[in-house]
Recover the amino acids of this structure.
């Protein structure tokens, strides 16, 4: 029988005090002892029994005793290093902190369509993987071992984003792909998913340089059934990302924010910052990210967890200030914070009112450069009329058609007032006179209309003197109904004239400006009325309290 273990030991054993030479000589003279020492090493190192093929009982005893021997070795290590020895309970997958193995569902295999090789992925795993899209799923595999790291069913995804950024070091343009299963991210649900091993919330986030120049960053793609293609240095990666996203099913909404307007598929999606980017840098708590302003909502990315605020999910503008769902606050002017409040639907609110809805927690995005305040404010002014707007049920559509013109007029007036300048006192006078003139004209028209209706009723009454009592009763009912309608219209117009949207001084933070001369004049009159004596003209007068 060969003795590889004792031979290896004697090869590397130091010859201290002649121990190596003595054992070598002794084993050379006694070959049976050499085999016994080799068997002893096999047993101590957890190797299989060399006699297992001939004696089954020896094999069973070997395994049992060998396990006990290994545990005793662990107890020696615990006493020497102070570390607790690993037990069988510690190896239980349910109690270990190691990443669980991914069990590939055959239903998620599908036919591969396109692969982006060796990309840095942020979520659901944080490593370099091959990203393959199939008919049914997105599969992340290890480039070296080809082991499956994660498989995400396409049916669980709802939105896809392709957004630009400047990378972690802010030194080179990159593209980031974000795939999400929901617009929000629930921390409690995330913890429950980790404990149960389920994938209730899914976010796939990966990025690539817009034009890679380093050899290690060059993009390699595979369009099946063709062979992999490694693209040249400096080539544009945008078309390859678009090709990858083209294999997504139509049920997944694709949204794109681009620095180049010619690349954006949706009109109005281009938000331009002061530096010409399609986003602004911000912080959510202590995590840095980017805010992408689109024509359908606001995206927070590119680090997990990402979150999307659709326009219809943002709290409505109830008071006409446009600050209900999205507002800006700044203390110094150098930076500002953006607050976004989400509106959740809890039931059927087809009637168009607030029933079945509630406003959620306000989310703060801080440390935004003050130079971007006007750009963000412009986006808010452009889209605030869409905040919280949901589709109206067909049964209630006709009810709201009559008030559509009034709503449009109020909306136009609100935007006009928002653009008014408060540079001088005349602005307030002009606005007030304009509001008052408009109201007076409206009242005159209503009075004229009422007079015409009264004259018409009088003429009609004169021509129908011979009608019976029933016809007279109908005329009186019609007259009463019209008078009631006139009274309601007057009350509505009065309420509109007193609304905050029609008076600049009633808007939040509004204050009339007074010149210094006017302030001094008012102070002087108050001092005269109170008998206050100015000390400026009589500096030598003595204080009566000193006498």
């Amino acid at each position: 029988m060969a003795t590889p273990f004792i031979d290896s030991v004697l090869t590397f054993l130091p010859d201290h005090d002649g121990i190596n030479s003595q054992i070598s000589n002794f084993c050379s003279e006694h070959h049976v002892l050499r085999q016994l020492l080799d068997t002893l090493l096999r047993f101590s190192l957890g190797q299989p029994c060399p006699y297992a093929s001939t004696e089954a009982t020896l094999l069973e005893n070997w395994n049992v005793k060998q396990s006990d021997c290994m545990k005793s070795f662990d107890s020696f290590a615990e006493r020497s290093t102070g570390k607790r020895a690993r037990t069988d309970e510690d190896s239980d997958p349910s109690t270990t902190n190691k990443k669980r193995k991914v069990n590939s569902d055959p239903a998620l295999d599908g036919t591969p369509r396109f692969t982006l090789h060796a990309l840095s992925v942020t979520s659901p795993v944080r490593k370099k993987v091959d990203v393959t899209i199939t008919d049914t799923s997105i599969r992340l595999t290890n480039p070296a071992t080809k082991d499956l790291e994660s498989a995400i069913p396409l049916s669980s995804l709802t939105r896809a984003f392709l957004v630009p950024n400047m990378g972690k070091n802010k030194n080179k343009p990159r593209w980031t792909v974000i795939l999400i299963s929901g617009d929000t991210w629930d921390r409690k649900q995330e913890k429950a998913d980790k404990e149960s091993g389920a994938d209730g919330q899914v976010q796939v986030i990966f990025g690539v340089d817009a034009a890679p120049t380093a050899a290690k960053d060059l993009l390699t793609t595979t369009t099946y059934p063709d062979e992999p293609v490694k693209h040249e240095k400096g080539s544009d990666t945008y078309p390859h990302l678009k090709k990858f996203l083209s294999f997504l099913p139509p049920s997944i909404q694709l949204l794109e924010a681009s620095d180049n307007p010619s690349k954006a598929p949706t009109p109005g999606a281009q938000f331009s910052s002061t530096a010409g980017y399609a986003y602004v840098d911000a912080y959510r708590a202590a995590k840095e990210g980017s805010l992408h302003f689109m024509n359908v909502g606001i995206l927070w990315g590119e680090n997990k967890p990402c979150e999307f605020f659709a326009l219809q999910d943002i709290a409505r503008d109830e008071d006409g200030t446009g600050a209900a769902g999205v507002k800006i606050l700044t203390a110094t002017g150098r930076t500002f914070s953006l607050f976004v409040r989400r509106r959740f639907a809890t039931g059927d609110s087809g009637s168009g009112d607030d029933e079945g809805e509630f406003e959620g927690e306000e989310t703060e995005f801080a440390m935004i450069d003050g130079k971007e305040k006007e750009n963000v404010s412009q986006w808010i002014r452009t889209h605030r009329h869409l905040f919280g707007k949901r589709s109206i049920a067909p049964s209630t559509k006709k009810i709201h058609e009559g008030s559509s013109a009034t709503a449009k007029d109020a909306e136009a007036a609100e935007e006009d007032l928002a653009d008014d300048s408060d540079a001088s006192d005349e602005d307030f006078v002009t606005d007030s006179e304009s509001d008052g003139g408009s109201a007076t004209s409206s009242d005159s028209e209503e009075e004229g209309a009422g007079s015409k209706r009264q004259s018409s009723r009088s003429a009609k009454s004169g021509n129908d003197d011979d009608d019976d009592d029933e016809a007279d009763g109908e005329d009186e009912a019609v007259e009463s109904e019209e008078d009631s309608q006139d009274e309601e219209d007057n009350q509505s117009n009065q309420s509109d004239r007193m609304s905050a949207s029609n008076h600049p001084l009633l808007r939040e933070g509004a204050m009339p400006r007074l010149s210094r001369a006017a302030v001094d004049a008012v102070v002087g009159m108050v001092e005269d009325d109170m008998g206050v004596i100015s000390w400026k003209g009589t500096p030598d007068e003595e204080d009566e309290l000193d006498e």
